[in-house]
What we know:
This protein is an alpha/beta fold. The protein folds into 2 domains: 2-240 and 447-460, Glycogen Phosphorylase B (Rossmann fold); 263-440, Glycogen Phosphorylase B (Rossmann fold), CATH 3.40.50.2000. The protein is 35% helix and 19% strand. The protein has 17 helices and 18 strands. The protein has helices spanning 18-32, 79-82, 100-114, 138-143, 168-171, 192-199, 208-213, 224-229, 266-276, 300-312, 325-337, 350-359, 375-381, 392-397, 412-426, 429-440, 447-460, and strands at residues 2-6, 36-42, 53-60, 63-70, 73-77, 127-131, 150-155, 163-164, 185-186, 189-191, 202-205, 234-236, 287-294, 316-323, 342-346, 362-365, 386-389, 405-407. The protein has a 9-stranded mixed sheet with strand order 3-4-5-2-1-6-7-11-12, with helices on both faces. A hairpin with a 2-residue loop joins strand 9 and strand 10 (189-191). Bound molecules: adenosine-5'-diphosphate. Residues 17-18, 21, 157, 291-293, 320-322, 348-350, 353, 372-375 line the site of adenosine-5'-diphosphate.
Amino acid sequence: xxxxxxxxxxxxxxxxxxxxxxxxxxxxxxxxxxxxxxxxxxxxxxxxxxxxxxxxxxxxxxxxxxxxxxxxxxxxxxxxxxxxxxxxxxxxxxxxxxxxxxxxxxxxxxxxxxxxxxxxxxxxxxxxxxxxxxxxxxxxxxxxxxxxxxxxxxxxxxxxxxxxxxxxxxxxxxxxxxxxxxxxxxxxxxxxxxxxxxxxxxxxxxxxxxxxxxxxxxxxxxxxxxxxxxxxxxxxxxxxxxxxxxxxxxxxxxxxxxxxxxxxxxxxxxxxxxxxxxxxxxxxxxxxxxxxxxxxxxxxxxxxxxxxxxxxxxxxxxxxxxxxxxxxxxxxxxxxxxxxxxxxxxxxxxxxxxxxxxxxxxxxxxxxxxxxxxxxxxxxxxxxxxxxxxxxxxxxxxxxxxxxxxxxxxxxxxxxxxxxxxxxxxxxxxxxxxxxxxxxxxxxxxxxxxxxxxxxxxxxxxxxxx
Length: 466
Ligand code: ADP
């Protein structure tokens, strides 16, 4: 199967969250199963063009664009849009780029071109796989092509929809007819994601539970009606773990490598983490870790509200992340209140994220909603049982009381209660080891999910355009 996988981010070239990891691991797993998968993404500043070969020169949306090929990647080269400091969506100060509609409209437009009959490339995909709103206009453009590949739209997070002023319709060269209820129109504005959901041949999201949750008003983010209409082509496929990158036996970022048969070596990582973050070097104190975007979604405020009680329980707490100012401030204040017991590292730090997975005793994910979540799978692999809210992919990947701990109410008290439950088992070394081992020996590999995606592609593939 020839698949063009279009994404706004791909690790290690550029990553802000889970999609970056997925965009690296899923295409690799599909290739290992014999598929021919190319990844299309913008040529951001951090992507070195050395070694890339030019495959096409185009004029699209009134701009000069080149398509470069580098390894398995196809890069959309439009320096005026992508050659900047900052991340794919925001400038260095965390403010959305004002021209995001154009930046990701162009990415979608190029994807549609390469999946349609006018493609300048000899390589023609049978399926175009779109990921999140920055790629979601591609099925809309393709809908009007005389011949095209099949389209799959994956929702990694329904909360991000790409909603812009309707006046941009013309600038993005979208046919007027698309600005309709059965199209890109969303309360008088232009919604990228809604367009993808309406026009794609198939829709998927990243866990079976989230696939059900987004059909409800509570978690449907205003698109539950559209999704209910299309529920016949909607399915949930769980993400996997890249076992080369997230493996405590080979991880180059941690202090000492270990496996489920040498769990005693995990202690060296705890000590290294405590020393790195100026926490008291106490081997017995349960160390609770958290890594993630500091947003309302991730329930960072639930943790901030629980910290004092967690410290009372004898725990240490360390968090790594960045995001909304109020959350950064609340967690920094908690660290200042509890020197040596609570640490807060602000920023994005891949290496420290690995050390927290290895060095903490438990991993916290009090998310209000979680489409899939990756950290709870990493933490199970690292013998660091997750304590998480019972929502979305967390329900699908954590076995409560067996490999981790789930709690239901989105309240600090419920988080504290779940940690208390975990601490009771932590106090019994034999039972805790059993819990760790059960998590560490689970299969979270991409092989199974990749087969499910291949099945989805097969059901929607179209004969390649000549
Ligand atoms: P989301 O995609 O919603 O941000 P996921 O749990 O699916 O959440 O994936 C988050 C990924 O990003 C994980 O690989 C996590 O380790 C990583 N990550 C998030 N924040 C940071 C950070 N501040 N530093 C390092 N890695 C981070």
